[in-house]
Amino acid sequence: SAALEEPITPPVRVEHTKLLINGEFVDAASGKTFPTVDPRTGQLIANVAEGDTEDVNRAVSAARKAFDEGPWPRMTAYERSKILLRFADLVEKHADEIAALEVWDNGKPYDQATSDEIPLFIRLFRYYAGWADKIHGLTIQADGPHHVETLHEPIGVAGQIIPWNFPLLMYSWKVGPALACGNTVVLKTAEQTPLSALYVSKLFHEAGLPPGVLNIVSGYGPTAGAALASHMDVDKLAFTGSTETGKIILGLAAKSNLKPVTLELGGKSPFIVCEDANVDEAVELAHAALFYNQGQCCCAGSRTFVHERVYDEFIEKAKARASKRVVGDPFKKGVEQGPQVDSEQFNKILRYISSGVESGATLETGGQRFGSNGYYIEPTVFSNVQDDMLIAKDEIFGPVQSILKFKDINEVIQRSNASSFGLAAGVFTQNLDTANTLTRALKAGTVWINCFDVFDAAIPFGGYKMSGHGREKGIYSLNNYLQIKAVVTRLKNPAW
Ligand code: ADP
């Protein structure tokens, strides 16, 4: 198998492994480093400076100074917009190296990084560059002799904590709107994937970003992450990661200075295949909805509900499709699935597969480690999954499709919504009434009809229930990074 061959040498060198504070690459105050590992082999890629409380303090004071005294919030919005656009151009120019770093650190297929993640990243910065000079308040009619207006001001220093599944995309969703609104940022990357953020942030400074506006701290969650979440001088916090960590973050924000928090957390999204479905098309879309990015998506369609009328045919075809999925070295052309990000995720997924078997689901295909090196897992399909099984309730975050049978639309609505998550949902039908009913009934931040994983910069994304607070992307993300000030001026002569 491909995974057993010598790993392909990544077409890039690791240049940046230090923290980026106040426009300079610096060592951690402790001098400590941590390893970042190649998921294809479990071998070291590089040792990276390990940020901790003292480094977060340094980064926050750089961001504070850049906000309170620096040019960034004071320059014209058009100037800020031009820097964001220049940055997008530089990323486009270096797209191949950036993609290679992302693949090396994360394990996702190179084809996918270059066709999805990098173009979405660039598009997002161009989208928010377009907003930068269109952010303004209102004049408001109020009772009494007053002129009333609102000022939309940047909120200040934004602390941002991102996960490892889409290191660049998550960077863009956080940094894009924050900077477009004139804020300054301290970003903590995930410990599994620190490399691509350092590379692109260097380019940001080449594009003219003033020092201190964007600071990158690599390091672990309970140390660097917690220090950022509980910092008294951070004005706003945005987090993407697990629901468990989201609860901790919200607590830290509350216990410190009550900074507002945006949370984008876990999911167990239904993908509903209705009775009128073209089964071949439904199988392909349901497959992509689950297996994309090695199944490491917070919005993965991880409960595939299939109408009983098409269920048997669907199972046969879903099994055949998963068995055909091309697993191998993510640098190899045509590979659809690389390794999971690290040994922890790898072991967790294998435990969920065992739990599926033990709880009586039917293992249709896969179920084992793929090859003998690194963190590859066979594309796995379970049928006959019941709602109360762990594999139908927990977020597995791996290439494990759980297929459940349903009889009618009210039943599938009730079962879909019987989850503590509410991030996304997929619906596959040609029937307009069915689509409309499901769209309105499903408790999910996104409903994709006859499509899935559409991540345009203009479309808001976020969750109901324990999938999070707030929305990112689109016009909605601006609110996360603005303070609204009402200004009321008494009119001496209201007649005029
Ligand atoms: P996962 O389990 O998928 O790694 P996490 O929610 O643990 O997801 O991680 C997402 C991000 O949150 C990472 O950057 C991680 O370092 C950070 N993180 C983890 N624990 C904490 C914590 N206690 N405080 C702040 N950040 C944390």
Automatic annotation (TrEMBL):
List the GO biological process terms. Answer: carboxylic acid metabolic process
What InterPro entries does the record point to?
A: Ald_DH/histidinol_DH (IPR016161), Ald_DH_C (IPR016163), Ald_DH_CS_CYS (IPR016160), Ald_DH_CS_GLU (IPR029510), Ald_DH_N (IPR016162), Aldehyde_DH_dom (IPR015590)
Task: Spell out the Pfam families in the cross-references.
Answer: Aldedh
Domain of life assignment: Eukaryota
User: What CDD domains does the database record attribute to this sequence?
Assistant: ALDH_F2BC
Q: Please provide, in alphabetical order, the Gene Ontology terms of the cellular component aspect for this entry.
A: mitochondrion
Which residues catalyse the reaction?
A: 264
Q: Where is the Aldehyde dehydrogenase domain?
A: 25-487
Which keywords label this protein?
NAD, Oxidoreductase
Extract the GO molecular function terms from the UniProt entry: aldehyde dehydrogenase (NAD+) activity
Keyword Oxidoreductase annotated: yes
Under the heading PANTHER family, the entry gives: ALDEHYDE DEHYDROGENASE-RELATED (PTHR11699)
Family assignment? Belongs to the aldehyde dehydrogenase family.
The name on file for this protein is Aldehyde dehydrogenase domain-containing protein
Q: Which organism is it from?
A: Mikania micrantha (bitter vine)
